[in-house]
Amino acid sequence: MTLGSCLALGDCAHGPLRRLPAALCALLLGFLLLAPLPALATDLQPRSFVTAAVKRVGPAVVRIDTERSVPRAGLDPAFSDPLLRELFGDPSPNARERGQGSGIVIDAKGLVLTNAHVVDGADRVEVTLADGREVEGSVLGADAVTDLAVVRIPNPSDLRAAPLGDSEALEVGDWAIALGTPYGLERTVTLGIVSSLHRNITSLGFSDKRLDLIQTDAAINPGNSGGPLVNAAGEVVGINTLVRSGPGAGLGFAIPINLAKVVAAQLGKGNAVVHPYLGLQLVPLTARLARDNNADPNALVQLPERDGALVQRVLPQSPAEQAGLRRGDLVVAAAQQTVPDPAALLRLVEASSVGEPLPLTVLRGDQELSLAIRPEALPHA
To answer: What are the structural domains of the chain?
Structure first.
């Protein structure tokens, strides 16, 4: 009989313990019960991939606190009285507004990548590093069109840059880990998946931006802006930029890191980012929508029954006007690539060069035209 059997039966008068007195047997069993148990097998298992990813990227995540002057609203008209000003002093016409966001160290020489809206108009930028150090930063450059900015940390020491991945390698369903300081709570990690790719920002109501975003259900809250979106390997694949409110609340969006690398390289040198511009307002057209329109006897115009980017307006004195584009034209190809919708054309324009001819294939009524358009620098950039 085994020791376990003896314990179960309350009987030590069998087996190798049969010659021991009952009291000694009980003492021996009590000692064995109090002895530390072997480590559970789960303790020997490695930590989760999330833990490993956070350890790899976490030391490069920073908090960014900003201050900016904003006009004071509703200043009491009574303070226009010289006597009151003499008694109480001149009230400042401006108020101090504080903001907060996140950022990621992308260069150990002191470069931090964040959102442009985090540092927009900031008079003071304070960067809190992962080890708790607080340093004054300066905005080296910002690009409102892509909502990216680079902050410089003076006299950097012991900085650790985050490993940057390849956002083009992402697939829907991949793990997504968001890091940052939402609501001022430092070193916060949330987990989700990549729920969509190439989500055009104009569909979210931002007409002044040029972005195809990564969509994720990893929680991105106020203060997460500018922080990294990380893959399962612990590589930064996106920069968190916004979260949807209202219908669809809970969906977060991040700027692909491949775009951020290109923009940061320019901003890091102190250069402005140039965005090619055509001067078109476009709407998507599908073959089905065109057929429905053409079947309507009251239709104002017959549309080509093709997918493409339909020209709704040509801006005056724009490259598009100079190239001869007209309202009602359907752009179906650019740079020898098919254009199924306006977002596809925008991507091709963004990849083009200012001043260099960009070939377009346009349907105008029953005609197919080949036009060459020379993009100019976006006026607002």
So the answer is: 3-34 (no CATH), 167-268 (2.40.10.10), 276-377 (2.30.42.10)
Contact assessment for residue 215 and residue 251, using Cβ atoms and an 8 Å cutoff: yes
| Annotated active-site residue in 225, 307, 341, 352 | 225
Catalytic residue among 65, 102, 143, 147: 147
Q: Which tens digits make up the pLDDT trace of 17-74? A: 455 555 555 544 454 445 554 444 455 556 799 999 999 999 999 999 999 887 765 5
Active site residue 14: no
Q: Is 120 a catalytic residue?
A: no
245 is catalytic: no
Query: What pLDDT score does 368 carry?
Result: 93
CA atoms within 13 A on the CB side of 69: 5
Q: Given 65, 102, 117, 318, which residue is catalytic?
A: 117
pLDDT in tens, 321-331: 999 999 999 99
Residue 126, pLDDT above cutoff 70? yes
